[in-house]
Amino acid sequence: MAGPQSLSLVLLLPLLLPLGPNRCAVAQRCPQACVCDNPRRHVACRHQNLTEVPTAIPELTQRLDLQGNMLKEIPPAAFRDLPHLTHLDLRRCQVELVAEGAFRGLGRLLLLNLASNRLRALPQEALDGLGSLQRLELAGNLLEELRPGTFGALGAVTTLNLAHNALVYLPAMAFQGLVRARWLQLSHNALSVLAPEALAGLPALRRLSLHHNELQALPGAALSQARGLARLELGHNPFTYTGEEDGLALPGLRELRLDHGALQALDARAFARCPRLHTLDLRGNQLDALPPLQGPGQLRRLRLQGNPLWCGCRARPLLEWLARARVRSDGACWGPRRLRGEALDALRPSDLRCPRPGAEEEEEAEELKAARARAPGGAPGEEAGAAGPCPRTCVCVPESRHSSCEGRGLQAVPRGFPNDTQLLDLRRNRFPVVPQAAFPGLGRLLSLHLQHCGLTELEAGALAGLDSLIYLYLSDNRLSGLSAAALEGAPRLGYLYLERNRFVRMPGAALLALPSLFSLHLQDNALDHLAPGDLAGGRALRWLYLSGNRLARVSPGALGPARELEKLHLDRNQLGEVPTEALEGLPALLELQLSGNPLGALRDGAFRPVGRSLQHLFLNSSGLEQISPGAFSGLGPRLRSLHLQKNQLQTLPALPGLGELELVDLSGNPFHCDCQLLPLHRWLAGLNLRVGATCATPPSARGQRVKAAAAVFEACPGQAARKAKRTPAPRPGAWGTPTKGRRQRANKEYKGLEGHGL
């Protein structure tokens, strides 16, 4: 039994030990750059510019937060001295390589976060030793491929996040070993092909996110491998048609999202093998008609908002089916005129006008004509005709409807591809000219790849008959111009890639032939000027990429026709100032890239024309030495990120109007920390963000963070009074301010110890 001396020591010990998160540091070590919460076994070493995993971390640590450092590489057995880790955060550490066996010894780890790094590949055994891992975050890297077996040792993982990478292809058995995975996130990649066995070996998978990719046909065979799926997200992919022949068979599927794609037609039996489907999301497509769906008997919600629905006689079967099957729907009629704007669920079949035989109204005749022209190669649901023979030097895959002649040394565009081809890959051949009518019989083609072919010209009518074409890749050629006549055969073209050619002027005339153009890529050409009229044909344009040209001027009105523009990339050009007047008339602009231009200074109101819409502004590496106090006036609460890193700023005004910022990067500027910088210091102190601003001068302040360098600004006029006004009076009972009762108890215990000779 403990004596009075022991009891007294126990009572007094909390008053004698250091306070704060390191109060147990006497018992366990803590690296100098870290904060250790030993009672909770948490260690945080965030944003310390660490280049390697710190040593001397307490062995019993369970949560280790290293985000925001500069580790570059995770070497083998990097955490072997921390066998009790359950959570490891390595976000934003500029990691480019994870060595084989990097995490061996972490058998208790539950969460590994490697998001927002620079990983391009994962070695075969990089993730070995993580047998208990439940969640793996790899989003926001540069991964271009997944090797089968990479995840073979992760049998306990339930969530794998691979969103926002650069994946273009999923090979067979890509996720072998993930037998308990329930959610697989693959959104925001560039996936265009899934091998038929890509999703094999995922028996527990319930949710699959594939939205925001480049899937040009529903990969039914691959998806049907994950037979336990309950939720499938395929929105923002360029499908134009889906039918029973796509082979989607998911008996447990409850929710299917096909929103904001390019669907123009849907077969009645497209989801016949998804009997439990409850919610079908078709918002934001190009559907003007929809047949009664056969098969999904449990369907209760059909979302159709944002489609140009034609509520003519042909829509009667749809309304009758919706009522009979008790399916709730949204969406509104686009026509005919008398029903425009009417909610679909408010209409009765009798509201639709059906003309007598032989007396069809003009609007119904137009609708029928449009419906027949819309279906690729025939009516929706019609079986594809016999595939034509494949050219001798090429490979044609009927299951995926892809044909490839990549790198075959061809000197002319081959002919004779199957008439249902949807993707044609002719990259890395040698034909300088694409002749007239070069692709006969390919009315269903969605994606055409002609990169690295030495092209100097597309003749008039080169794309004739490509009515369904959405993607055209002409990058890395020798093109210096394009005519409207060359592109007239592809009225639905949405994405045009012209990077690394020889353009010195915007091919404005060609854009007139592309009424549906969504995204134009002209990076790394030789454009020196944008003039009024250059974008006259870009009225539907949303994304414009002009990085890496020689642009020294963007004239007022040059961008005006593209009123729907959301992304404008003008980085790595020769602009000497922000083209403020050219930004007039862009009410939807969300992202503006101006980094890498010799801007030098920002004048008042530089971004006022886009102040109500802009969310992301990039001004890094622009030689900025001066920013006017009113430079960002007009930019309101919508702005989310501001990039000013790697400039020559010695001072910067406060930015009080930008209170909703989620990211501010001021790193790499030579800030002079004197009283002139005090407003910025005060503004940064009120932000719960790490901005990277450090003092370069005077020498006494070098290396200190502007946000935290309170001592540097203490002598500034008004700062001491402001600090005194903000400092609250000590609260009775707070740590470091003993109350009268606590002092009395401590004195009593101390006297008791004295009485026992201690």
From TrEMBL:
Signal peptide (residue range): 1-27
Assigned keywords, A-Z: Immunity, Inflammatory response, Innate immunity, Leucine-rich repeat, NAD, Receptor, Repeat, Signal
Family of this protein: Belongs to the Toll-like receptor family.
Segments for region (Disordered): 719-758
Basic and acidic residues composition bias: residue spans: 746-758
The protein, known as: Chondroadherin-like protein isoform X3
Domain LRRNT: 29-63, 389-423
Domain LRRCT: start-end pairs: 307-355, 669-717
Database matches in PANTHER family: ANTIGEN BSP, PUTATIVE-RELATED, INSULIN LIKE GROWTH FACTOR BINDING PROTEIN ACID LABILE SUBUNIT
